[in-house]
Write a structure and sequence with these properties.
With 156 residues, the chain is mainly α. It contains six helices and no strands.
């Protein structure tokens, strides 16, 4: 029995020539690796763009303060009462604009986002690592419910 089996294996078989062999289609790329890299890239770009927006808003504040200071330096040599009044009015405008800008920052966009930030705040208070990477004070600001007057103004 063993001999017959060996004979069957050793029989002549037709070997295809290299020209007869069709090229196999290239293997499809791994979608998981690509999607993971793409999501990583999108996440990092989103974080970078958010930080850029925050930095740009801070630059606007800095430009307002610098313009008020530059105007003050221009008139410091020989100020007239009119110049002092105008620069003082501009300084009041800058202070009010910066103060109102702080008031307009209403972080939570939706109720779900506010609840998510509240859960992350609880993690931060327990000493665990937060999912957002934000500080406790930032999370507290995001998790806070808006006052009734702000809720009414957003609706209408």
């Amino acid at each position: 029995m063993r001999n017959s089996r060996l004979a069957a294996i050793g029989e002549a078989q037709e070997v295809p020539l290299l020209t007869d062999v069709e090229e196999a289609p290239p293997a499809p790329p791994k979608p998981r690796a690509e999607s993971a890299l793409t999501s990583l890239l999108i996440t990092s770009l989103r974080a970078l763009s958010q930080r850029t927006i925050v930095a740009l808003s801070s630059l606007v504040d800095l430009a307002l303060l610098a313009s008020a200071f530059a105007l003050w330096l221009m008139i410091v040599a020989e100020p007239t009462p009119l110049q002092l009044g105008c620069v003082g009015g501009y300084a009041v405008f800058v202070v009010v604009a910066l103060w109102r800008g702080r008031d307009r920052e209403m972080p939570p966009v939706s109720d779900r986002q506010r609840k998510y930030m509240a859960m992350d705040l609880a993690r931060a208070r327990r000493g665990q690592r937060t999912k957002t990477g934000m500080s406790e004070s930032q999370l507290r600001e995001f998790a806070r419910k808006p006052s009734r007057s702000k809720r009414r103004s957003r609706r209408g």
